[in-house]
Amino acid sequence: MAKNEPIKQHYIPRSYLKNFGVEAKKGNYLVDAYRLEDDLLLEKISTKSICFKKNLYTIPNAEVDRKYDLEHHYAEHVDSEFPKIYRLLVDESVKILTPEQKKQVLYVCLSLYFRTPRFLNHQNAFTDQILDRMLLYADENGEVKFTFEEERHEFNIKDIDKVRQEFKERNRIKFLVQHLEKWKEFVDFKYDCTINVHRINDKDAPLITCDNPVSIRGIKSTRFEGLFNPDSVITLPLDTQYYLEIFPNSIADGQTIIHRMVHDRDYVFTTNAIIQSNAEKLIIGKPGTIEKHFEIQSSYEESENGEQFVEKAKFKLEELQKFHQICEKTGLTSTETIGQLKKMLNHKYFKDEDQLIKMKRLLIATGHWK
After folding, report:
1. 40-82 residue pLDDT tens
2. Where are the beta strands (DSSP E) in the chain?
């Protein structure tokens, strides 16, 4: 088989997965993968062996030299571009992107949402249910006749396996067309977004990822509320320490600034829980980190720790909301705003907050901190 005929097609790029792995021989990267269906931890497996599907992007009925065009497009414009995007996002000296860089960040990172086969898998499960139901209405000769999506279908029950495959191929072709259209449309829709990159300051609380790493959910409900919902926040773990957050359109600033923030173990607890709930089949992490993830989740389930977490989260949210309200009303340099900032920095829950410390330094440098 020719080298330019890639049948084994990764829907999560290995250039992304390597950030959650350790390098082995010849540039191969090893990760731990936890299989949700049977609670099995696969240790130190190659990124080559996960998150792929044979011929997922192969274009049917195309000329031989064109049938892998989509896979080649992903390889050239997404998979090979991800390391550049990753370096931009985790380099804390980078404060502002160019408009082209911002567009590329969205294009590459959001591809990890649209190119995964979860929509295709759900559609295949649905059509399997339809076919199973129609088999119950076969006539005495085993003939099945029904209309589905305005198309007439007729077959004999002995041909059901062939018919299932035809439905799956039809679903795959629809997936190829629709996911490309939605991907481009969504990147354009999100361009004015605010981009945040969070760094975890606790080395013993690593981030994990999964086979469906991009999460889109309502900022208040934490549930998926539609792809083009203006109140949705988008998140993606970048490695074990950095996390990308794309803010809702309803509070977008249209700028190309990267807002950088620092968080602790509490943030990892909530973030990794979202990743696990988003996973289709696999949770993925650097060797040893998946066990650490489950340890952290278990520790927060203890009543005392759980109560402390809720208390801390509630207090920080209320104080930050109060700070923003005062700031909007009286200005950053007002006595009231600075008083609220001092109050937060003197509290144990805020004493290591990098953003607030930087704000204090700015106010000192400008002569407003008294």
Report:
1. 999 999 999 999 999 999 988 767 668 889 999 999 999 999 9
2. 8-10, 22-23, 29-35, 40-46, 52-54, 143-148, 151-156, 195-200, 209-210, 215-218, 232-237, 242-246, 258-263, 282-285
